[in-house]
Amino acid sequence: MLTKRIIPCLDVDAGRVVKGTSFVNIRDAGDPAELAALYDQEGGDELVFLDITASADSRDTMVDVVQRVSEQVFIPLTVGGGIRTLEDMRRMLNAGADKVSINTAAITNREVIGNGAAQFGSQCIVVAIDAKRVYAEEILGRQESSHSVDPSIALDDTSGWEVYTHGGRNPTGIDAVKWAIQAVERGSGEILLTSMDADGQLSGYDLGLTAAISGAVPVPVIASGGAGTLEHLYDALDQGQADAVLAASIFHYGTYTISQAKEYLGSKGIPVRPITN
C-alpha cells in the first residue's frame, strides 16, 4: 500500500516564510532555509516552496532562496510561483527543486503543461489549483458577462468551485474539477489543490472539493488549505481521498510536530512513512 505524505508548505514573500488567512492578512513565520531544515529533520515527506506574490508582481521566483532551501533538505522539494516558461522550470530544477508547480501560467498558456512534461517528465510537473466555492447565481452572472472561457472547462450550473489565478486575486470562470481533469490530460503528474475558503482558517480542509477532484483524476492530489488539527489531516486523507496533506500554520507555529501527525495518522490506520531519525 502506498504511504500517504505529510508536506509542510513554505509560502515565501520577500525572502521570508509567511502565512495568511484566506490569502490575506499575511504575517511572518520565519526563515525558509531554517524551517526547511527543521521539517526535514522532523520527518516531513516532501516540502512545497511557493513564492506567493511572484505571479501577481510579474517577478521571477527567487532562485537564491530556492538554492538555500535545497541545500538544507534531503527530501523532495516542489517549487512554484512565477514559473511561466520551460526556462523558468529548468532554472528551478537546476537550483535544486525536484518538481515545479505552475498555476497562473498553466491557465494562461496551457501548452506549458505538456511542453514541461515532455521536457522534464510528468513527475516533475505539478499543476496547482486555487479554488473557491461558487454559487448558482454567481455562475449565471459570469456566463452573462464573459464569453472568453473555453466551454470545455467553464463554470456551469453543476459547478461547485471556481479556479483563481495570481495568488488568489483573479477569478477565471473556470470549473475546478474540469480544469483538474484537463491539466492531467495535458501532462500534469500531480495536483496541488488549495481551498481558498478554508485556507488559514484552521477549521478543516474542504472535503467536498478534495474528494471531487481526487475522484476525477488518476494522479496524486495534495490537499491544501484549512488544517487546524490532526483530525483534519485524517479527514482529508480518508473522506477527501487525498494522497497527501499540505499544512503550514499548524507546523510553523508549533501547534503540532510532523512526528505527532504521523503517530496520529498511523493510529488511525493511515499508512505513513516512518520517521527514522
Relevant terms:
single chain, alpha/beta, 8-stranded parallel beta barrel, 277 residues, 11 helices
Structural class: alpha/beta
Write down the secondary-structure element order: EEEHEHEHEHHEHEEHEHEHEHH
Distance between the termini: 23 Å
- What's the main sheet like? 8 strands, parallel, barrel
Measured on Cα atoms, how large is the radius of gyration?
A: 17 Å
Per DSSP, what share of the residues sits in E-state strands of 2 or more residues?
Answer: 15-25%
Average pLDDT for all residues: 88
Helix content: 25-40%
Which word captures the global form? globular
Treating each run of at least 4 consecutive H or I residues as one helix, how many helices? 11
| Low-pLDDT residue spans | none
Strand order of the largest sheet: 1-4-5-6-7-10-11-12
The count of DSSP E runs of length 2 or more, i.e. the number of strands, is: 12
Describe the structure.
The chain has an eight-stranded parallel beta barrel with strand order 1-4-5-6-7-10-11-12, surrounded by seven helices. It has helices at 32-42, 63-72, 86-95, 104-108, 111-120, 136-145, 176-186, 207-214, 230-238, 249-252, 258-267, and strands at 5-13, 16-21, 24-30, 47-51, 77-80, 99-102, 125-133, 161-165, 170-175, 190-195, 221-224, 244-247. The longest helix has 11 residues, at 32-42. Helix 1 (32-42) runs parallel beside helix 2 (63-72) and helix 9 (230-238) crosses helix 11. The chain has eleven helices and twelve strands. Strand 2 (16-21) and strand 3 (24-30) form a beta hairpin.
